[in-house]
Design goal:
Blueprint (H helix, E strand, L loop, with lengths): L3 H25 L1 H4 L3 H44 L6 E2 L2 E8 L10 E8 L2 E9 L3 H21 L3 H23 L17 E8 L4 E7 L5 E3 L3 E3 L20 E6 L5 E5 L1 H4 L11 H9 L6 H16 L7 E8 L17 E3 L2
Antiparallel strand pairs: 1-2, 2-11, 3-4, 4-5, 5-6, 6-9, 7-8, 7-10, 9-12, 10-11
Helix pairs in contact: 1-3, 4-5, 7-8
């Protein structure tokens, strides 16, 4: 295995050798001193070869650095937005994402699925913006969720933990970006910084509970595709403080064979050259006609159709998360007028 010190020595030595060859030729070779056409052609060929060698060496060095940066970014992505297991508590899972930046592996979309004593808990969110600032916000929200999902018995308490974690992160960022405040945190976080967040809880009976802060509602696939509910979401986290009362929305039950599709607004907002939005619901309805839906197959189909629709990378990051109920049965409950009718429960 080549050592880093040897690589650095080689990277410095080769340009030095090429430069020494050019200077030696110019100063010591009699042919370089002549003024006739043949001598000039030979001199031009020598310096062209030297220049080409230098360019190729720099190109190889840049490609090597790019590979290393992508490896580091991929490792960071797997830690931050770690790959989901294929199955959690009888639910089949798959997730996919498309970045608005070519070659990028990190962005402002976030998702996680964890099995807890309170049921399977799911988060999907979208940070306003891109780049390193968005990645730091994703880390703050996801880190808080991974702890709060196990610790807190109710979804509203999980959401309040996310709000506090986001507030701390934004205040620390503001203090770091504006150190003139003498170490005193600003009174308000960064302006126009917010995160849309969707929290779901799926219990052992398939019952779905939700809290939504400005995020698109999931689609339920059961022979067709329709929004899980039409309830009014709360404002995104960071834009306004959460209200004192956080009512949990009951969204019916996820029956065996049915699937939920969570997504960020980059899916619905993607447009073609004519400005037509991507028909996400129609694509999902087409996939739902032949149950059971394959989570991985659905991810591939939607991403392929989206790229075909736009003809290029989407203008915004887009993420998709699919959960299919593979449980063999759901315990009997009291009859419900409509198994998917939204109901409100206090939280």
């Amino acid at each position: 295995m080549e050592r880093p010190g040897a690589r650095r020595l080689l990277s410095l030595g080769l340009p030095t050798v090429w430069g020494a060859v050019a200077i030696t030729y110019k100063l010591a070779c009699p042919l370089a001193q002549e003024e006739n056409m043949g001598a000039r052609i030979v001199s031009s060929a020598v310096f062209f070869a030297v220049g080409t060698g230098l360019i190729l060496h720099v190109r190889r060095a840049l490609l090597r650095e790019l590979r290393q940066m992508r490896e580091v970014a991929g490792a960071a992505q797997n830690v931050l937005l770690r790959p989901l297991p294929s199955r959690v508590e009888g639910l089949a899972l798959a997730a996919g994402r498309l970045s608005a930046s070519r070659g990028a592996s990190v962005g402002g979309d976030l998702y996680e699925v964890v099995a807890t004593d309170h049921g399977v808990r799911v988060v999907m969110g979208d940070v306003r913006g891109h780049g390193l600032a968005a990645i730091g916000t994703v880390a703050a929200v996801l880190g808080s969720f991974r702890e709060a999902a196990h610790d807190e018995p109710e979804l509203p308490l999980v959401l309040r933990r996310l709000e506090r974690a986001l507030g701390r992160h934004l205040r620390e960022r503001a203090r770091a970006e504006h150190p003139a405040g003498g170490g005193t945190p600003p009174e308000t976080p960064l302006a126009e910084e917010f995160v849309t967040v969707l929290l779901l809880e799926i219990d052992g009976d398939g019952g779905i509970s939700a809290l939504n802060c400005g995020h698109p509602w999931p689609h339920l696939l059961s022979g067709t595709a329709r929004p899980l509910t039409d309830g009014e979401p709360l404002p995104p986290l960071g834009s306004f403080p959460l209200p004192a009362d956080l009512p949990v929305l009951g969204c019916g039950r996820l029956l065996p064979g049915e699937a939920l599709v969570l997504h960020t607004d980059g899916m619905e907002d993607a447009r073609d050259v004519a400005g037509t939005f991507f028909p996400l619901r129609a694509v999902l309805a087409e996939a739902a006609r032949v149950p059971p839906v394959s989570p991985q197959g659905l991810i591939r189909a939607v991403c392929t159709r989206l790229l075909r629709h736009t003809g290029r990378l989407p203008a915004d990051d887009a993420a998709l998360l699919v959960l299919r109920n593979d449980r063999s049965r759901i315990p009997l409950q009291q009859p419900e007028p409509d198994r998917h009718a939204p109901t409100m429960s206090g939280g």
